[in-house]
Amino acid sequence: MRHAVMSELPGQQNETMKRSFQLSIAAFCAFVASDGAAEDWRSGYSLYGTPGLIEMPSAFVRPDAEIGMTLGGFENQQRVSFNFQVTPRFSGTFRYSRLAEWGGPGTGDLYDRSFDLHYQALTEGSLRPAVTVGLRDFMGTGVYSGEYLVASKTLSPRLRATLGLGWGRLATEGGFDNPLGVLSDAFDARPALDFGFGGKPSFDQFFRGDAAFFGGAEWQLSDDWVATVEYASDGYARETSLGIVERETPVNFGLSYAPNADYILSAYALGGSDIGFSATLIIDPKDRVARSGSEPAPVPVAVRGRTVPVSQSERVARDVTATALLAEGIVLQGLDIYGRTARVRFENERYRAEAQALGRVARVLTRTMPLSVENFVLEPTRAGLPLSAITIRRSDMEAIENRPNAAAQILDRATVTEAGAGTPPSVVASQASAIAWGLSPYYAVQLFDGSNPLRGEYGLQADLRYALLPNLTLAGTARYRMSENRSDARVSESTLQPVRRNVGLYGEAGEIGIEDLALHWYARPGRALYSRVSVGYLEKMFAGASTELLWKPVDSRVALGAEINYVVQRDYDLGFGAQDFPELDGVYDVVTGHASVYYDFENDFHGRIDVGRYLAGDWGATFALDREFANGWRVGAYATLTDVPFEDFGEGSFDKGVQLTIPLDWAIGTATRDQVDVRLSSLSRDGGARLNVDGRLYETVRGGHVVALQDSWGRFWR
């Protein structure tokens, strides 16, 4: 890369910079003046897994909330990217790359993590192009680091053009003096890249040093095929100087095939010397794979005067209601009838949305309650905790069921208040088994080890859950490992206690291991208060006791929590023992805890801040922001900063990553509360490590509160 600081006289240098700046402005203004009708033509995905051409970005964005998972590359570099359209204009990308022979021919490969941001500042209009600013690899080792300002315009229904200005790696082909230098001399030169431990934003490099133009055009050959040509400003300067990559021309060609909205397949001719390929799987978390639920239809509402209820007496009504609800996957826990009101407490074991369970319970009650009962007070529970009290009039159920917009109408007439006030309803003998168990295969994956980026084990997993009381449960998981052990797992050096970095060693000492086995007790100590106490083998690496208290009013978007834990590090064999550390003359025990603030925003976003002490004894805070959809999908990111210095933390500098929750009912169409949780992050490190205990209170209770009920109320009549 040619730096902007040159052996010119000051006046000559200023004139050069002015000409560069004028050329940049003139090019962009000419492009803005182009006319063309903007069509609903989605941007493609680049080899970097971002909205773009081939290797260069474009100014277009993907549909709101879309997830794109791209596998692409060429002979010497392969990339796996996860792109999420966070808002209609803003997207973020997490990427994991293999760069072959990074130190030169015959040397080892580099496995690199990187993050991108892409923000569309201006949308496309009849005359105005879309304009986007972006950061590539802004928080990694910086091997792909670059910034860009790019404009894209639809010139005709089948032709689009892109013109951009790049910095950093995006200015290593055809670079010239930085036009931003007219604003400040600080933009003239780009500091040398310091890999360090990676993971930190490179603020001192953003939009600095040489700049270069890039651009291209896309031609829609048919509804399924798109041809692309681009002039790339990434010259692969380091790779070509070492003889790792060849680039004979900055011009790339591509051909993409997208027969539907679910995937894109592409092939490329790169730099006159390489062939590249990419495949992108596209997921719309707002849509469903299974277009309609395959669970049995709910029973119709029984209208008084037309349908005779099954029972009239309170005793018989309890038994009949319990049987009918159990067929719906709902366990009746209590039922009282007083005057014209029936109070029903239940636990929904089948439906992800509590609103769907409420609808089914209310319909069953129209068939089992005496004719005189007019008001249904429904109290959903989780882990034996009453979450809320929803009052619905029976006459509204009878009148509204078959009306247009019936869900909204019944919601307008329902009331939601705090649950648990007064005496609990009379306990009903449960017809459901107190013991639940299962045996299934498992596959556990450990990602992003620098020497082995995909490591895993497989075997059989046994799960046990025994409900001694509705709010007192013994739960555990054991695994029989059938794969080879993971003793070759890389364990990095650190001055911290190995509370996470040696997780790969757990389970290697034996084939059978206890993943967790703990007793969990939940209670309601006061109005809007929830508590949890967990004792036992809380997770794979730690055993002990965990206590938690949550304040969460039923109609509030804010929740406050506090958690205190005392734990001991377990032995590698995942048995019942604790591990002895010679340097400690005994076991490692630690008191950890956090104060937490939760906020449910009105636009599907959920924020969380945890402040406290972590497993390695470090103090700090975790910041998390997730976007959750009505169908259960959840996508978010988190970062933890503590008093552990970056050099002690090691590779990555601090803990951060992307997290996903995928509801299984979204994919299979059958009602279930099961879900898959995925975390894409750096290697497990000791700094910022938090105890992984199941059943934390906020996620346990919020599904039965006002905001979550309103968001999922469209399922009430399903």
UniProtKB/TrEMBL annotation:
Superkingdom field: Bacteria
Species the sequence originates in: Yoonia rosea
Protein name: Exopolysaccharide biosynthesis protein YbjH
InterPro entries: YbjH
